[in-house]
Each structure stands twice: as structure tokens, then as C-alpha cells.
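For the sake of transparency, this paper describes our internal protein records without simplification. An entry from our holdings is shown next, in its original layout:
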Amino acid sequence: DEKTAKIHADAKILHEEFPGITYEESIRFLTNRTMKSARKQLEAYLEWKEAYRVEQLLSESPTFQDDSEIWEYAVSHSLTFFPGVKLEKKLPRYARMVNTKPKQTAEDRKEKDSEVQKRMLYMMPGLIDIKIASLDLYALAFAMYFYLVLDRQNLE
């Protein structure tokens, strides 16, 4: 339809203007936004990625055997932005991606086929305990976790 064609045309422009994003990311930033608003949001997003060394997070990320390892890696990366914070307990994993396909292997998670990647985000906010860590740390850990589990070249 006409709206979809416009989004794809604008996404191509944004993708050329912001080479640090994928085409699919440009589509996500255009959803329900004007070009002006999308540009503003993309600039903020790229500043956030740089400030929190997200590309480093991706380039250094090991191969994970399960979702809990991804969470632990996201927490450890997030802790580097909170100097002096030493956790007395593990940060509770209050968010997790749950596969609808049982016993998915690490290789299956790499598949780009959206039919294979039927997942849901399971949130358990009752596990957030501000005696363990600040809400800022929980939020950053979640953002890093989410960034690690979602493929930037997928519209999932």
C-alpha cells in the first residue's frame, strides 16, 4: 500500500543518512513517526549506543549457551557504567525471552527465519529489588540484554 511504500522510501533515505543503523532499524524508527521525529530519535539512539559502548558489547559477546548467560553478560557490561557498585547478590533476571519452540539450540537462535524465531518477552517486575541495585542499573541491564537477544536486521 501507499503508506508502506512511503515508509520503505523514507527508510532508504534514513539508512543512507545514518550508516550506523540497519535498514530494518530505520523502518522501526519510522513507524508512527515523521521523518523529522525519526531523525531526532535516531540521533539520540546513536548517542546512546556510543555512550554505552553497545558496539563493543556486540563485538566482544561470546557464544551463549542459554538465555541466562546473555542476561549475565548484559549485567556485567552494564556494571562497568556504575563505578563503585559491587553487587552483594546477583541481579535478578526479571526479563527473559521465551521460545515457543522447545529446546532451541544456540544454532537455532542464529536463524534469520522469523518462523523459527517465535519468541515472547516474559517480564517479572516483582523481581526488581532496589536493595540489590538501582533502577538505573536494572534499566541499563535490560536494554543491553534486549539489544543482545534481538537481531538488528530483523523486524521482530
